[in-house]
């Protein structure tokens, strides 16, 4: 497999079915979202259809409303991004899975992600990548190259700065945010697999949601309910397992 474009729909369905079964069996509420949104995200490579109607760029903010119905919820659907550069792991339309848990720590969310991977590996008879070493590193040290990039391993990059976040709560140090990402290291090559964080007020002035029609239907108290979420692209995960 050379690019994610070569992943067929049957393979995507197999992964999605395993993920959905896992979350439903673990008492997660499934939220449904439309693929179009009546608002804009600043400095985002969105596809504008007409007037103030856009193809969905983020699952936020509508996915946050699910917290009124459950302490654990998830969503599986399509996102559309007008990428400036299409690489072997990028596409204009892709499937994403988001899940949220109330009062969950970074390590609890990371553990659940790898538990989900183990379920996928077992159900689809895949290589057990979930058993590889997992290391935690701050964004500052990651950018400085202060981490092991040899062999195959997982890397959890934490403490992202405000300018790299999107509605993530500020960290205890009051300088960085709760945003973190899960990377896969393969002999020096690094691929972002998942992005996560605690829902919070927007700290990034360069990227924000502009609700021109007052149609989002949520209040700011959504930011104080302490939900931690994680999202990953299904095709990118498949590429990780299927590429040689």
Explain the layout of strands and helices:
Blueprint: H1 9-25, E1 29-30, E2 36-37, E3 40-41, E4 48-50, E5 53-55, E6 72-80, E7 93-102, H2 106-124, E8 134-138, H3 139-143, E9 152-158, E10 180-186, E11 189-198, E12 209-210, E13 227-233, H4 234-242
Parallel strand pairs: 1-6, 8-9
Antiparallel strand pairs: 2-5, 3-12, 4-5, 6-7, 7-13, 9-10, 10-11, 11-13
Task: Provide a descriptive summary of the structure in words.
With 244 residues, this protein is an alpha+beta fold. It has a single domain (4-242), classed as Bira Bifunctional Protein, Domain 2 (BirA Bifunctional Protein, domain 2). The chain is built from 4 helices and 13 strands. The chain has an 8-stranded mixed sheet with strand order 1-6-7-13-11-10-9-8. A 3-stranded antiparallel sheet has the order 2-5-4, with no helix packed on it. It has a two-stranded antiparallel ribbon with strand order 3-12. A hairpin with a 2-residue loop joins strand 4 (48-50) and strand 5 (53-55). It is globular. The model has no long low-confidence stretch (mean pLDDT 92).
Short description:
This protein has four helices and 13 strands. It has helices spanning 9-25, 106-124, 139-143, 234-242, and strands at 29-30, 36-37, 40-41, 48-50, 53-55, 72-80, 93-102, 134-138, 152-158, 180-186, 189-198, 209-210, 227-233.
């Amino acid at each position: 497999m050379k690019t994610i474009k070569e992943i067929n729909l049957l393979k995507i369905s197999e992964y999605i079915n395993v993920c959905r079964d896992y979350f439903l069996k673990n008492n997660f509420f499934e939220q449904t979202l439309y693929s179009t949104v009546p608002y804009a995200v600043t400095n985002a490579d969105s596809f504008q259809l007409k007037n103030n109607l856009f193809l969905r760029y983020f699952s936020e903010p509508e996915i946050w409303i699910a917290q009124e119905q459950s302490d654990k919820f998830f969503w599986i659907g399509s996102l559309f991004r007008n990428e400036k550069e299409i690489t072997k792991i990028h596409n204009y339309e892709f499937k994403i899975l988001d899940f949220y848990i109330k009062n969950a720590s970074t390590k609890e969310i990371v553990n659940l992600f790898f538990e989900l991977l183990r379920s996928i590996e077992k159900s689809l008879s895949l290589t057990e990548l979930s058993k590889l070493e997992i290391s935690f590193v701050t964004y500052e040290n990651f950018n400085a190259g202060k981490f092991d990039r040899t062999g195959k391993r997982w890397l959890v990059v934490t403490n992202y700065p405000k300018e790299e976040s999107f509605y993530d709560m500020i960290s205890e140090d009051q300088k960085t945010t709760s945003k973190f990402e899960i990377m896969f290291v393969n002999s020096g090559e690094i691929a972002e697999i998942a992005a996560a964080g605690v829902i919070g007020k927007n700290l990034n002035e360069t990227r924000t949601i502009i609700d021109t029609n007052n149609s989002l239907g949520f209040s700011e108290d959504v930011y104080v309910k302490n939900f931690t979420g994680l999202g990953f692209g299904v095709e990118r995960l498949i590429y990780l397992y299927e590429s040689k």
